[in-house]
């Protein structure tokens, strides 16, 4: 033990010396140094702990050090983090040296683990390690620090006063995010939860705090208590969760068994599930850890947990163990499902026929690509987190998968179709890895997902094929115009005197003179929707279809384009529609449309004229989409029209600010300061100055996330309230209907509404809600009633049950809407408000791209306030990059002769 202690002290001294010399400026450099030492520290610390806890002495040699973290996993739950820590850092340090920025991010992630090592050695072994860890700069926003200090005080009071604890929740929850918070050398956790149902959305998330570490793999139960704190001079409540335990849902057991036998055995409510959940709670082991036990340990555990009861699930685990040990087909699918065990994912992989290509299980063929290459492919309709994959599937020997993943990420996240080989220097022998990847592709995907090289670039074959097909199709529409259009347009313009500017008049004169496709670009508020309305009136007697990506965008078209009510729809609805034929096809907000969706529209729609509308500076598509950005490089100039005059605001300075941000002017920050758009985060956020006001946030979680801001603002609403479980609703609350609500065919996702009346009727709650949509009696569904309607809205009523039973496979959240005092920047695209407040914290500063920021600030018609720290403001603006990617256009032209 003496040698181990000596080595630990040397490693500790090295880390502390680096920390002592670290400042906020060079944090990345020293993080890089520290990261290279930490793996050694974990191995030595693990070996020491194992020997102390087992009261044994092991030789100080390489094999024992290498296996020490695995051995610690056999000890008590409190030491399991060392195994996870070691596994994470092993993946990083065994492959290539991290950049300073990458190392910095990792050290911040690992800070919690280092603190836990420090506390364990102080409290258990009376040894001082990492004594200056608190000097490592962690950048906690001043307001966040105050917030978390208040929460820590509330937690300490709660945990020190056992008599205050009440058992008040039998609900199950899924943990979507676990964030460790470290204040004054104390660790506690901010958990983002939803009720454990299959249809929970980001809107349904709520925040709880706890001092207890908890696994995030499985559904949990716990007691939730409210406590009051003050932040920004406002009183608010927080949720504290205690007595947490793993509680796998019965339907998860039943659906997993169904993958093996093909039918529902309905055994999930048996005692076996409870015993397994309790075992996971007590030990911290996962279902996959159970499978990985030695045969003797596994049999011993099985006999212990199934003694005297029916053991259907362990019989299935026997089959899992046989498949996994022998690496039979489906073994990676089973590994992942056992590690995460979420009902909605388990259901997605099921098929109703036995599959001899997947070990005779009832698993759909669409999951074979994941089974073969899990780090380069997703399960059907489910994208696993890379962290989960690394924790449940061995990554060794899968460099070809990581190469494919790197190229796909560069394409989808950085919008680069072609990746320069110089950017792939962490991979050796790229040609060999490309060949290995191709040989391992599922036979149906070989030509679609194949990686190809051109000169010094690597790309995904099908991604290139899609965009080339789009460009060629659009180019074919640009070759000839509409016969007789010149006189037709002139006659209409002579009779129509309502056009608001000369640019639109000239655009209409030239729209289809030489081409049957037209592209309309324009900054926010320049009247793109107005021009669409003029074009629609020009072809008044023709059949038209209007498409957009989101429901708010579709509703915007319906409001602004005359006679478009029954002809406007989302792209997804259009793709599923039987009627895809029209004379004019309008597509709005084209920057949000992926290449795959655009190609599907062009391949299936039948139209004479195509009008493409959007702004490349606003929010981009979720899937890979570069077509709208690059089409001006391939079509004749006469196809492209740009609107420049802004109508959204009469405020000259505000319009100029938009323009400076749009063009990434060097003086954006100076112009901002002069016109006082930016403010430090303060209580002014919560003081409403205008009736038509909105708060825009990027994320849903945290102090300044959408859900917490909604709770702050709701607390100032003095309307009648009804509360049950985690929910509170008040008369006067603005709400948005959610995607999976039972009335979704009428009350679509993101439909803006206001609660007008609430009555608590015991087991159910009666609501009267004014919706921003005009409906009639024929539209009503289930128990919905129409009270009255007006020109722009309808007052409806319905009742919702208070009961949600997470045991059941088909249990759904009964609440069809969510509080909406604040909304996400993404959901605000296409909307406008008199007053806009944008909140940006250092937690999300790296996610605020130029397009997201520009979209947010251009929602304001009169008043704009951006709440952020000077440091965050500087970092966000410094990172702005122009969207235009000439490289892809140039390569496509040279390679495909378009």
CATH topology of the largest domain: Rossmann fold
Number of separate structural domains:
6
Which residues form runs of ≥5 with pLDDT under 50? none
- The number of E-state strands comes to 29
The CATH superfamily of the largest domain turns out to be P-loop containing nucleotide triphosphate hydrolases
CATH architecture of the largest domain: 3-Layer(aba) Sandwich
Largest sheet: 6 strands, parallel
Report the principal-axis shape.
Answer: globular
Count of helical regions: 33
Radius of gyration: 30 Å
Calculate the terminal CA-CA distance, rounded to whole Å: 71 Å
Order of strands across the widest beta sheet? 13-12-14-15-11-16
- Mean pLDDT score, rounded? 89
**Secondary structure category:** alpha/beta
Protein name: AAA+ ATPase domain-containing protein
InterPro entries: AAA+_ATPase (IPR003593), P-loop_NTPase (IPR027417), UvrD-like_helicase_C (IPR027785)
Organism: Campylobacter pinnipediorum subsp. pinnipediorum
Domain AAA+ ATPase: 514-623
How would you characterize the overall build of this protein?
The chain folds into 6 domains: 134 residues; 105 residues, Beta Barrel (OB fold (Dihydrolipoamide Acetyltransferase, E2P)); 143 residues, no CATH class; 56 residues, no CATH class; 178 residues, P-loop containing nucleotide triphosphate hydrolases (Rossmann fold); 139 residues, Rossmann fold, CATH 3.40.50. It has 33 helices and 29 strands. It has a 6-stranded parallel β-sheet, with helices on both faces. The protein has a 6-stranded antiparallel β-sheet with strand order 24-25-23-22-21-26. A hairpin with a 2-residue loop joins β4 and β5.
């Amino acid at each position: 033990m003496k040698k181990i202690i000596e080595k630990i002290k040397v490693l500790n001294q090295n880390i502390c010396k680096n920390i002592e010399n670290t400042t906020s400026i060079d944090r990345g450099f020293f993080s890089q140094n520290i990261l290279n030492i930490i793996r050694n520290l974990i191995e030595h610390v693990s070996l020491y702990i194992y020997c102390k806890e087992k009261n044994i002495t092991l030789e100080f040699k390489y094999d024992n050090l290498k296996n020490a973290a695995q051995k610690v996993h056999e000890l008590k739950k409190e030491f399991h983090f060392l195994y996870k820590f070691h596994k994470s850092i092993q993946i990083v340090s065994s492959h290539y040296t991290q950049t300073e920025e990458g190392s910095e991010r990792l050290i911040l992630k690992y800070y919690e683990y280092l603190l836990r090592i420090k506390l364990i050695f102080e409290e258990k072994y009376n040894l001082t390690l990492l004594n200056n860890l608190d000097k490592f700069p962690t950048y906690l926003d001043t307001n966040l620090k105050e917030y978390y200090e208040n929460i820590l005080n509330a937690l300490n009071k709660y945990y020190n006063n056992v008599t205050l604890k009440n058992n008040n929740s039998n609900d199950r929850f899924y943990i979507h995010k676990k964030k460790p918070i470290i204040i004054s050398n104390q660790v506690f956790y901010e958990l983002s939860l939803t009720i454990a149902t299959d249809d929970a959305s980001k809107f349904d998330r709520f925040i709880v705090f706890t001092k207890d570490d908890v696994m995030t793999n499985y559904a949990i139960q716990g007691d939730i208590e409210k406590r009051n704190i003050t932040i920004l001079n406002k009183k608010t409540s927080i949720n504290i969760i205690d007595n947490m335990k793993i509680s796998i849902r019965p339907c998860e057991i039943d659906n997993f068994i169904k993958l093996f036998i093909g039918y529902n055995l309905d055994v999930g409510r048996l005692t076996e599930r409870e015993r397994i959940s309790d075992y996971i709670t007590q030990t911290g082991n996962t279902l996959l850890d159970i499978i990985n036990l030695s045969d003797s340990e596994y049999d011993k555990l099985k006999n212990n947990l199934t003694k005297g009861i029916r053991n259907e699930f362990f019989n299935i685990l026997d089959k899992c163990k046989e498949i996994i040990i022998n690496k039979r087909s489906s073994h990676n699918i089973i590994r992942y499902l056992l590690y995460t065990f979420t009902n909605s994912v388990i259901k997605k992989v099921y098929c109703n026929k036995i599959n001899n290509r997947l070990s005779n299980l009832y698993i759909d063929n669409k999951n074979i690509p994941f089974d073969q290459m899990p780090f380069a492919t997703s399960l059907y309709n489910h994208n696993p987190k890379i962290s989960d994959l690394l924790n449940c599937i061995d990554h060794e020997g899968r460099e070809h998968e990581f190469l494919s993943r790197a190229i796909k990420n560069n394409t989808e996240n950085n919008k680069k179709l072609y990746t320069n080989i110089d950017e792939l220097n962490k991979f050796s022998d790229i040609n060999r890895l490309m060949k290995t990847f191709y040989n391992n592709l599922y036979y149906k995907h070989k030509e679609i997902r194949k990686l190809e090289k051109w000169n010094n670039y690597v790309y995904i074959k099908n991604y290139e094929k899609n965009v080339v097909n789009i460009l060629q199709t659009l180019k074919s529409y640009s070759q000839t115009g509409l016969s007789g259009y010149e006189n037709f347009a002139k006659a209409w313009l002579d009779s129509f005197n309502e056009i608001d500017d000369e640019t639109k008049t000239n655009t209409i004169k030239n729209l289809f003179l030489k081409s049957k496709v037209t592209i309309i670009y324009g900054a926010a508020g320049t009247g793109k929707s107005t021009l669409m309305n003029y074009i629609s009136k020009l072809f008044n007697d023709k059949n038209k279809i209007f498409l957009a990506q989101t429901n708010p965008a579709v509703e915007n078209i319906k409001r602004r384009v005359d006679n478009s009510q029954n002809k406007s729809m989302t792209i997804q609805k259009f793709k599923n529609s039987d009627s895809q034929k029209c004379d004019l096809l309008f597509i709005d907000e084209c920057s949000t449309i992926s290449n795959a969706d655009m190609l599907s529209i062009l391949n299936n729609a039948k139209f004479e004229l195509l009008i493409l509308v959007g702004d490349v500076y606003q929010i981009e598509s979720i899937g890979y989409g570069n077509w709208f950005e690059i089409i001006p490089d391939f079509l004749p100039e006469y196809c492209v029209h740009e609107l420049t005059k802004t109508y959204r605001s009469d405020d000259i300075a505000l319009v100029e600010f938009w323009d400076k941000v749009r063009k990434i002017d060097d003086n954006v920050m100076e112009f901002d300061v002069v016109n006082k758009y930016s403010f430090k985060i303060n209580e002014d956020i919560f003081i409403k100055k205008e009736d038509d006001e909105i708060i825009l946030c990027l994320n849903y979680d945290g102090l300044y996330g959408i859900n917490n801001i909604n709770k702050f603002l709701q607390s100032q609403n003095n309307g009648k309230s009804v509360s049950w479980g985690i929910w509170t609703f008040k008369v006067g609350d603005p709400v948005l209907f959610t995607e999976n609500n039972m009335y979704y065919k009428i009350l679509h996702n993101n439909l803006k509404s206001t609660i007008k009346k609430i009555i608590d009727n015991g087991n159910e709650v009666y609501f009267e809600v004014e919706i921003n949509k005009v409906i009639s009696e024929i539209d009503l569904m289930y128990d919905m009633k129409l009270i009255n309607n007006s020109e722009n809205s309808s007052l409806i009523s319905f009742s919702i049950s208070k009961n949600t039973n997470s045991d059941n496979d088909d249990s759904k959240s009964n609440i069809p809407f969510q509080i909406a005092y604040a909304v996400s920047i993404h959901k605000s695209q296409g909307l406008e408000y008199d007053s806009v407040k944008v909140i940006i914290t250092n937690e999300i500063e790296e996610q605020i791209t130029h397009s997201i920021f520009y979209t947010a600030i251009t929602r304001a018609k009169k008043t704009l306030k951006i709440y952020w720290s000077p440091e965050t403001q500087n970092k966000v603006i410094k990172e702005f990059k122009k969207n235009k990617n000439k490289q892809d256009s140039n390569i496509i032209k040279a390679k495909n002769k378009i």
